[in-house]
Specification:
2 domains; globular; signal; V-haloperoxidase
């Protein structure tokens, strides 16, 4: 499910950034702002990794689906960023309703003001986003991840060497119910809807060449530009095996 979340977040960010000037980094997009809000929710509440991936997948799926609905809406022009913001707000407000007034409402209000969204457009956004989010949530409720797995480890005896056994003090296994879950996934059609309009990410793109060269300059064993901080950062993430990264994105 983490892979699904990352894939949709990336594609949705591209969807929103396709019409942006080259100098406007995706990191400053509405997509990344709401991802940060979702991450802060996950970290503040101490949500574990697999469940956090589920949160990211729900938010990203809502963004993606509502952007496509907004593009198909013909009675008014709805910016992709506005559709993504309203979808994100609806998803997080359904999941964490006690944080809506203090966190999600002000963030959405700022997005709406930035894009000069009129009050008359709000019912349209609601009609597009809320049923979509509710459909996604119903699908995820039935995905099997919350079912009791009734997992039992093998006893700690010599005949069970090589089989899963609890270590001293361990009382539960992490996420055995994941094996029963219906994962998020992207069909090839979903991917093609986005990537068919993206021409600057081809292998012969000059930007791709620059980024590849930068990877070589910093990643080479004999690099002359990599600092001790750069090297230490890589080792930190590698040795941490995901323990310190934002939950659900590892």
């Amino acid at each position: 499910m983490a892979a699904r979340a990352i894939a949709i977040i990336a594609l949705t960010a591209l969807l929103c950034s396709a019409s942006l000037p080259k100098g406007n980094a995706v990191i400053n997009s509405v997509i990344s702002q709401w991802l940060t809000i979702a991450q802060n929710t996950v970290l503040s509440l101490g949500i574990e990794h697999q469940q956090a991936a589920r949160v990211y997948g729900i938010v990203a799926s809502a963004q993606y689906d509502v952007i496509l609905l907004a593009r198909a809406y013909t009675s008014a022009v709805i910016p992709d960023e506005v559709a993504a913001a309203y979808a994100s707000h609806a998803a997080l407000s359904h999941l964490f309703f006690w944080r809506q007034n203090s966190i999600y409402d002000p963030a959405l209000a700022e997005n709406l003001a930035r894009y000069n969204v009129s009050d008359s457009l709000l019912p349209v956004l609601q009609s597009l986003a809320v049923p979509t989010v509710q459909r996604i949530l119903v699908d995820r409720i039935r995905d099997g991840i919350s079912y009791f797995a009734n997992f039992k480890p093998f006893s700690n005896s010599s005949e069970n060497i090589g089989r899963y056994q609890f270590t001293p003090g361990q009382t539960s296994a992490r996420y055995p119910q994941v094996a029963r879950a219906k994962p998020f996934y992207l069909s090839s059609y979903d991917v093609d809807v986005i990537t068919k309009n993206l021409t600057r990410f081809s292998l012969n793109d000059t930007e791709y060449g620059r980024e590849l060269w930068q990877v070589y300059l910093y990643g080479s064993v004999n690099s002359t530009v990599r600092t001790a901080y750069d090297t230490g950062s890589v080792r930190f993430w590698a040795l941490g095996t995901g323990a310190e990264e934002p939950r659900g994105l590892g």
